[in-house]
């Protein structure tokens, strides 16, 4: 077993100004300088389209899919596809799922809307039901209770469990291994939205065995906007894509033969690649960011974020704020629930005055650090609560 490598601050690899305390990676990541450079070079290359060869439509996307498969510990890169957004990836799942009247789709309370609307529509179309596992009250054992209620909610009626590895608003961790085991008992699908997890925390397809994993590039994967990645298990190998683009068809690499229309698709999840998935600007940018993340390793990012935030979290708890127990939350994203004596509007004003960037989601202040942050950033944050 490899030992963790304690990383140092990597702010020099980003363009964040010194006066800015950016604790809002869950909103949108800053671009790495290396990713920015890759994007600039790609834009310049497009100025000379005659330098873009036919094989370039496929070689870079294959490389991207291989890197993503390696990053999520998926055995076969062909089970991955390139998507424009999480909603697109989830819609692909919904199009290829068979439900019957009375089936249940299980969701976590207050999930991100893109992982709710699609299931509401699917349930409505099939006379099925969306069942939401509500969040317990703030307090001790909250995460344990939530996980227990989630497991108890899976039954013979459950057809789909659609959830994140951790809650997008406060970082509460869910026991995906136990949930996967329970879904298998009832032949229910496990569909994971990893948008606030993949890139900053370890994830193994081999271990979790999800039926689908969807994520976006512009948050924790440190990549460009309007791009994401998906993993679809072999369950979806014979499904129908959302769109019938030329590039997801069999033998599309043969430009001269494109008028010989094909009924067959690319193998496995290749059929689900979005149109223009060869994107000559975004693809090299995402390749570059995944290469950097593979070097850093998500488990090291978790360790770093825990180290720089530990003292500040203890101080916030001493002020009466609630932060989920350290063992049951992510370290790159956590929610701070305020005590009654703290004025939220005054706190927001102090954040603005001190150039501190966080998010407000539900009843929580969502704080989401990364390797560009330091312990001093958290000291600055805590001072605003005084």
Identify the overall geometry.
globular
How many individual β-strands?
Answer: 12
Number of domains: 2
Radius of gyration: 22 Å
The largest sheet, given as strand count, sense and whether it forms a barrel, is:
7 strands, mixed
Q: How would you portray this structure in words?
A:
The chain is of the alpha/beta class and 386 residues long. It folds into two domains: 11-32 and 297-383, Alpha-Beta Complex (Aspartate Aminotransferase, domain 1); 44-295, 3-Layer(aba) Sandwich (Aspartate Aminotransferase, domain 2). The chain is built from eleven helices and twelve strands. It has helices spanning 33-46, 56-71, 86-95, 114-125, 142-153, 176-185, 205-208, 282-296, 298-318, 344-353, 375-383; strands at residues 21-22, 80-83, 104-108, 129-133, 158-163, 189-193, 212-216, 228-232, 334-336, 356-357, 359-361, 364-367. The strands form three sheets. It has a seven-stranded mixed β-sheet, with helices on both faces. Helix 4 (114-125) links the parallel strand 3 and strand 4 (129-133). Helix 2 packs parallel to helix 8 and helix 9 (298-318) runs parallel beside helix 11 (375-383). It is globular and about 70 Å long. The two termini are 43 Å apart.
């Amino acid at each position: 077993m490899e030992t963790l490598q304690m990383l140092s601050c990597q702010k020099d690899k980003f363009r964040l100004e010194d006066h800015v305390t950016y604790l809002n990676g869950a909103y949108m990541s800053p671009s790495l300088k290396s990713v920015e450079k890759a994007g600039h070079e790609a834009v310049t290359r497009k100025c000379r389209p005659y330098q873009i060869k036919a094989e370039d439509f496929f070689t870079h996307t294959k490389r991207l899919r291989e890197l993503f498969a390696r990053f999520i510990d998926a055995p076969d890169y062909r089970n991955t596809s390139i998507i424009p957004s999480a909603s697109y990836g989830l819609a692909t799942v919904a199009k290829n799922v068979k439900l019957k009247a009375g089936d249940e789709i299980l969701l976590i309370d207050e999930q991100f809307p893109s992982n709710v609307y699609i299931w509401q529509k699917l349930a409505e179309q099939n006379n099925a039901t969306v069942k939401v596992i509500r969040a317990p009250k703030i307090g001790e054992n909250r995460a344990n209770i939530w996980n227990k209620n989630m497991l108890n909610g899976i039954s013979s009626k459950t057809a789909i469990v659609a959830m994140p590895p951790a809650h997008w608003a406060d970082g509460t961790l869910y026991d995906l291994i136990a949930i996967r085991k329970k879904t298998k008992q009832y032949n229910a699908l496990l569909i994971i939205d990893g948008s606030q997890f993949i890139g900053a925390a370890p994830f193994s397809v081999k271990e979790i065995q999800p039926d689908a994993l969807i994520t976006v590039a512009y948050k924790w994967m440190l990549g460009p906007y309007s791009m994401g990645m998906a993993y679809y298990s072999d369950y979806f190998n014979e499904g129908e894509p959302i769109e019938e683009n030329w590039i997801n068809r069999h033998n599309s690499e043969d430009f001269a033969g494109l008028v010989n229309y094909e009924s067959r698709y690319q193998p496995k999840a290749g059929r689900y690649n979005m149109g223009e998935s060869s994107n000559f600007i975004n693809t090299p940018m995402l390749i570059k960011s995944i290469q950097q993340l593979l070097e850093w390793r998500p488990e090291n990012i978790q360790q770093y974020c825990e180290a720089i935030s530990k003292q500040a979290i203890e101080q916030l708890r001493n002020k009466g704020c609630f932060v989920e127990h350290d063992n049951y939350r992510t370290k790159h994203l956590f929610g701070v629930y305020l005590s009654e004596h703290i004025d939220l509007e005054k706190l927001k004003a102090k954040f603005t005055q001190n150039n501190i960037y966080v998010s407000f989601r539900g009843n929580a202040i969502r704080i989401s650090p990364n390797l560009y942050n330091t312990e001093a950033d958290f000291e600055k944050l805590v001072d605003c609560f005084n």
